Amino acid sequence: MQRLAGKVAIITGGANGMGEATVRAFVEQGARVVIGDIAEEQGQALAAELGDAAVFLRMDVTSEDDWASAVAAAQKLGTLNVLVNNAAILHIASITDTTPEDYMRVVKVNQLSAFLGIRAVIPAMKEAGVGSIINISSIDGLHSQAGISAYSSTKWALRGLTRSAAIELGQYNIRVNTVHPGGIFTQMGGKGMIEEEDINKTIYSKLPIPRVGQPEEVAAVTLFLATDEASYSTGSEFVADGGWFAGQRGNGMPTS
């Protein structure tokens, strides 16, 4: 049996990268999906490929009107009961070189959008009597590094938003969780700029799983949270990082 049979989802940033992998995984498991993205050409092509199981909506995730349109589009497909807040942007610069405008642009896309999305889907999910909201954070929402002050701030903020929403919405059988990808080989993660073999050697060779992650591996975690298999998980954080947080093999240290 398909694990998402009968479910309808909105997936933001769904036209490429992890979002596209998530859309494909959901459709494969029986869901019908609204693909929300500003990348019209890619989004329309993906929806056309997937047929009746998906529709594309050009969506500015910082717009309340666009969120209302996304909910309306989802309800035309059936009962809306899954939201994946995946849309995000990355700004790399030192704090001194990050302007307030730069910072707030990242906040609006990465953080405000998730808040707006949660608000937008609550009435439909309450009516349905069940829902799963999945906010895609990052390992940079669990630690941080130089040069990503805006990005990391928003990914940390999603954790607080998620827990607060989980507390409020659990009484309506609406679950809210975060997924924390590590380095994933998408455009944001270096794809198109560096070969996969090279990025494995330079960055990931000492991880417990010594390679960069694939978007399908994160999509599998998100898929689980969307299913009824995760019915007792809310306000929780699910990490897919190849063991980044477990630690790394050190030079000269014994290993099996």
UniProtKB/TrEMBL annotation:
InterPro entries: NAD(P)-bd_dom_sf (IPR036291), Sc_DH/Rdtase_CS (IPR020904), SDR_fam (IPR002347). It holds the Pfam family adh_short_C2. GO terms for molecular function: glucose 1-dehydrogenase [NAD(P)+] activity. Its EC number is 1.1.1.47. Keywords: Oxidoreductase. The keyword Amino-acid biosynthesis does not apply. The keyword Phosphoprotein does not apply. It comes from the Bacteria. Belongs to the short-chain dehydrogenases/reductases (SDR) family. This is Glucose 1-dehydrogenase. It comes from Halioglobus maricola.
